[in-house]
Design brief:
single chain; two-stranded antiparallel sheet; Rossmann fold; about 180 residues; alpha/beta
Length: about 180
């Protein structure tokens, strides 16, 4: 797929997928500002969306000491704030806890619906995930709507079928400054 500076780009980031891949593969965090800059690649960024799951009971404030005028935010709230500061719009939902203790936290359907909904004013959709469940979305965006689809993810944790389905694959580990070592 040929990139040109007039292309309108939308970015859809599966934060859970990216966070856990960076942590487990490299013991690092993702530099989201650098990620956005690289996947936009000089084109027109229309929207950059990040899909996050909020842990149960996290309200944002970890502790307060009003007598000292101190206030600190939880690590999760700080992470969400960093995502916003890097230029991402957050789509957030609470973790689902089922009877018996099983927890579920994914945004696959929400991300797919947003990408389809926004595709009418985009030329290129960038999916930042390695999750093979998104292959039908890639196929629909390409063949049903005529959009270019790029996937950006870590090579080792990306579905081979997702890589094949995309017009272009961006290997995140090859981007300088993408990883922030802990």
């Amino acid at each position: 797929m040929i990139q040109h500076k007039e292309q309108r780009v939308g970015i859809f980031v599966d934060v859970q997928n990216l966070y856990h891949s960076a942590k487990n593969l490299y013991n690092a965090r993702v530099n989201f500002k650098e990620l956005i800059r690289n996947v936009v690649a000089g084109r027109k960024l229309i929207r950059a969306m990040a899909y996050v799951v909020k842990s149960e009971g996290i309200e944002g404030i970890a502790s307060t000491r009003p007598e000292r005028g101190e206030r600190s935010i939880s690590p999760e709230a700080a992470f969400f704030e960093a995502l916003k500061n890097s230029g991402l719009e957050l789509r957030m939902k609470d973790i689902q806890v089922y009877p018996g203790g099983m927890k579920k936290a994914d945004w696959d359907v929400g991300l797919a619906v947003d990408a389809i909904r926004m595709a009418s004013f985009l030329d290129t959709v960038v999916l930042v995930t390695g999750d093979g469940d998104f292959v039908p979305l890639v196929d629909y965006l390409k063949w049903g709507l005529g959009r270019g689809v790029e996937v950006a993810a870590f090579s080792k944790t990306t579905s081979a079928k997702l890589r094949e389905a995309a017009d272009n694959f961006v290997s995140l580990e090859e981007i300088p400054k993408i990883l922030i070592k802990k």
